[in-house]
Amino acid sequence: MAHLPCCGGFACVASRRVRQIIARRATVWVVAACAVLAGGGVATASFLGTPAATTARQATVKNVTVGGGGAGNAAAAMPQVAASPQLAVMPKSTARAGASRSGGATPSGSTTAPASAGSATCTNPSFVTSAQYGMLNLAPYFVYNNMWGISGYSVTQTLYACSYSDWYVVADMNNDSGDGHVKTYPNAHRDFDNEPAISSLSSVTSTFAETSPGTGIYEDAYDIWLNGIATPGSTEVMIWTQNNGQVPSGSQVATVTLDGRSWAVWRSTASGNYIAFVADSNFTSGTMNLLTFFQWIIGQGWMPSNSTLGQVDYGAELVSTNNVPATFTFSNFSVNAS
Questions:
Q1: CATH number at residue 316
Q2: What's the whole-model pTM score?
C-alpha cells in the first residue's frame, strides 16, 4: 500500500497486536526462567523477542495477517509528529503478586537510564525501555512501547513509566518519505480476559489525561478491541481525542453526538471492521462513557448485539516529529466496567 496515515487497517493493526501478545508471552518466559534458577535448577529460556520465536508465536494466532497495513487516505503533505532517545532496561521485579516487568530486550541485569524531561509527575520512573516491543506488565494493565511500524524508517523511542497511569515517551522520527506511515503506538491498555458481553454491562468508563507537543503528525486516541483482539471477526474502535494532521482509514460515514461531544465517524471494512470517532474539537483529558459508543455501533448494525469487550488502549499513533525529540506525556488512565 502507498501509505499508512493511521493504523486503521486490520492487517497493520493485527501486526501490532500480535507483537503485543508476543511481548506479554516473553514476560511469562522470563518470569518462568527466573523461578527455575531461583530454585537452584538450570533453565533454558526462549525469549520470544527473537525472530525465530516470534515466527512461532505468530503461527499460533488464528489466521492473522501480519505485516503490511490497511487502507488509508492521508495526503503526503500531512503535518508532523514526536521524538526520543535510546536504551533498554529490565527493572528489578516487584514484590507485587502476579506482576512482572520486561524491557523486551535485556534478559538480565539493569541499566540506569538518563533523566529525561517530559513529565511533571513521573520524575523517577521505575521502568524504562527503548526496546521495540518493551512492555511493563501490571496485569490487567500494561504499558507498551509498541514500535510496530519502524521497519525501513529512522525511529528512536524510549518509554518511561512510573505506573500504567503515569508514563511518557520521547520519540524521534520523520515523514521525509511523504507516505504518512504510522510508525509507533505507545500506549497503556487494560485487557478483559473474560471478554464480557457488552449487553451484560451497565457501565464502561475510562479516564485519561495527556500532553502532546503540538508539532508533527500524530493523534492521541483510544484503540478498543471488541469481539476478540485482532482476530478474524474483531471490531476495532478508535476514539480520537486529539488530532494533529492525521486522517482515519476508510471514509466518513456519519456525524454523531455522543457523550456530550460531536464526532465525525469514519468506517472501513476493506480488511476488517474498523470504526473511528474523530472529535470535532481536540481535548486532552476527561472521563469517557465508552458504553455509549459501543451501543451506538450496535444500533447501526455494524456489529452483532452479542458483541464482547476484549481490550481498551489509550496512547498516541506517531508518524513524524520533524526529526527532533518530542515528548508525549500520559498522566491519567483507567478503565472500569460493571
A1: 2.60.120.180
A2: 0.72
